[in-house]
Amino acid sequence: MTSMNTYADNLSSVDALAPIFKAGGDPLRLEILRVLRRDTFGVLELSQLFDMRQSGMSHHLKVMNKAGLLEPQREGNAIFYRRPLHLDSDKPTDQTIRQIFEAVDRVPLPPHLQERIEAIRTQRADQSQAFFARHAEQFREQQELIAAFDLYAEPVAEMIRKRSRKHQWQAALEIGPGEGAFLPVLAELCGHVVALDNSRDMLAKATRTCIDERLNNIDLIEGVTDTLLARGDAFDLVVANMVLHHVPSPADIFLDAAALMNNGGCFVISDLCSHDQDWAKANCGDLWLGFEPEELTTWAADAGLVAGEQLFIGLRNGFQIQVREFWKHSGQI
């Protein structure tokens, strides 16, 4: 009887694999999985990427979702698609899905597809940049509709100060400094600080903060992380406070932070947990409605970073903030 039960269980497991291979047995669907490696796209964006009608793309996504190859992610009234966050290493179905991902990831994207992805990212970046250009004077007021600065800045500062007692950090980078309110913390702990922002209006306000606070060890640079990578800059500490939900491709921030950090470097993030407050897009310029903690952990692991301390802060308005640290070398935690 035991052997019969074992045979039935094995047969059931094999049967469960069939829909996965069937759903993945289409070249277009494998291409979709490739572009979802580090990005999240909506149906219209995917239709744009692959130059096909929305109805056809919706069919493919439905089949792949049912097979567990991808999952929907609601962003307000819009639905985006991503690779599944929770894959159990012990389940044959999840092992198979992971192996499919590993196989397609070994094949580089063709240039024309990469160009289309960059075009979508540029559209997103332009949308965010335009918002901050329009609302630079109301920046603090807009941001505090979600969370007051001190609610996340103080825990981040405390985490960094605690780590600085053990590490001799010389150079720090803040991505998206806004008005520059966090720069005094970094200027106190590190000999050289770079503040990087793609909004000229926000950099002007950060410059005023540096003047008022007499911060003489800060370079303010207009640009994106690629700007610093091209210069060959390197940092011991990288900070991004409430920035990820404004950038077109959050996963790329982890890759770029890892590339910009020295060995033993630390990447500290504060950002929103996933939420359903769609008004934040129009009122605060958000591109994404927060992130699952597992998303950040996965993106960090893909970038070769190791997760360290984490803190979750619940707010009265229903939002939750996650404060996370990621290290370039696990032995340095």
TrEMBL record:
The keyword Methyltransferase applies. It comes from Marinobacter flavimaris. Signal peptide: none annotated. Keywords: Methyltransferase, Transferase. Residues 11-108 form the HTH arsR-type domain. This is Methyltransferase domain-containing protein. InterPro entries: ArsR-like_HTH, HTH_ArsR_DNA-bd_dom, Methyltransf_11, SAM-dependent_MTases_sf, WH-like_DNA-bd_sf, WH_DNA-bd_sf. Transmembrane segments: none annotated. One of its GO terms (molecular function) is S-adenosylmethionine-dependent methyltransferase activity. The keyword Transferase applies. GO terms for biological process: methylation. The lineage of its organism: Bacteria, Pseudomonadati, Pseudomonadota, Gammaproteobacteria, Pseudomonadales.
